[in-house]
Input
Amino acid sequence: MSALSGELKTNQVAVPAQNITISTISQKSEALFDETSMRFIKIAISLSQEKDLKKLMNLITNEAMQLTSSARGTLYLVDRERQKLIFYVTNQLSFNEITIPLTPESIAGYVGVTGETLMLDDVYELSEELPYKFNKSFDQRTGFRTKSMLVVPLSSHKNEIIGILQLINKESENEIIGYNRTDLELINAVGSLAAVSIENALLYKEIENLFEAFVRYSATAIDERDPCTGGHSRRVVLYSVGLAAALGTFSQAQIKEIKYAAWLHDIGKIGVREAVLSKENKLTNTEIDVVRCRLNMICEMMQKDAYEQALQLMASKSETCEGIVIQSLKENVSRFKEEVANDFNYISQINVPGFMTDEKIRRLEAIRNKKYINSQGQAFEYLSQFEYENLMVIRGNLTNYERMEIESHVTKTYEILKHIPFTRELKNVPEFASKHHEKLDGTGYPNRILAANIPVQVRIISIADIYDALTAQDRPYKKAMPAEVALKILKEEAAAGKLDKELLDLFIAEEVYKLSDDPSTLAE
Ligand SMILES: [Fe+2]
Output
């Protein structure tokens, strides 16, 4: 191996020739071989464990730089679709993506296009005839002097170039020297491991992107069934992830699990009728029109019956009575119409979400008991049983049956999610998503479970869900509420033992609730 022969040459200078025995050479070779092997095993293990593509690229670059004593290094990903080379510049907070064209004019581009390896002693002294040039702009900007370079392609199992590893300025005893065959062999060996890891990470990322897009658009489609809850799931994700991050005790994988549970918490609404989800008042406009038409019809019937009665009366009485009969008839009809109009106005007035006082209930019951019996003895009720039951809703606008139907969405959420083969990291998503209406004091639904069985992740999503339900624009049964009022209600819920007080304090102290105010946090 070249690495071993390189080491032997150095030893030959330092140690007198007569002292070198076969066994010394063999021991040193073995030691070096063991060290290199161990190094490779460690690199292989770390590369196989890292699934995050950007961290993996960073890891490969650092290992390659250390193995070759390079001052700098860059790992480019080849994006054939966009014809670009991509690399990431790290700072403490994030990775910034930078791209350069995949063309043979640049050194990395040339390797990406041709698949050739380049070992350059001084990039400032490249022949004019070469198709690639060294771009000095970075050096000019920073004062760095790029000299030697080793640039190797990384190929997938299908022999496609998926990355370019570029190492710069090999250092030896404070000097920049050119790369040698040993470096090339080492980097080729690391490159094979790196290519497999990059391929796996890319595949993992693609699957994750696919799944995330599917989850995101499914949730958005559910939200949009009810125009009044548009964007709800997305904001619940923002608040939940924000609160989980503020808590600071969850790993990235756990935060991802919370994110998916938040995206999917209302997925069960797919099984709830749209008419119920988007119900604005106790009766719909069409249903209230039916009431109006029926009451008008009753008035017309009453007037017709009254005229007929009067005619019969007039026929049997003297002419002097005629004026009195007509006058009384008119008064009866107009009194009746006025009463019916009052009843209809009252019905319209209570046909909104709100609270029915005892007085309101009595008045509605009185209307419900009214019926008009026409001249043929047929009875016409002012209100049907369905209309009465809907108008009689004491609080809000949903009947018990409709409320149960809406509340069933959490059971449906669980039923849907339990059939999805989530990965081990996401195995709790069905539980976290379907418990978001449970309360710590056991008054929630569907199972009225107590605090001990409500994980922190669920408590986080519950706070996010309630806050958004209160503050969202144009909810059918609640107007948009200012943040302070919503937070006051949440505090009352926490004081009553329904929500986690510590989490709510953090939600407020860290201003997690303001996350949706920032348009950048709402970007796709
Ligand atoms: Fe919900």
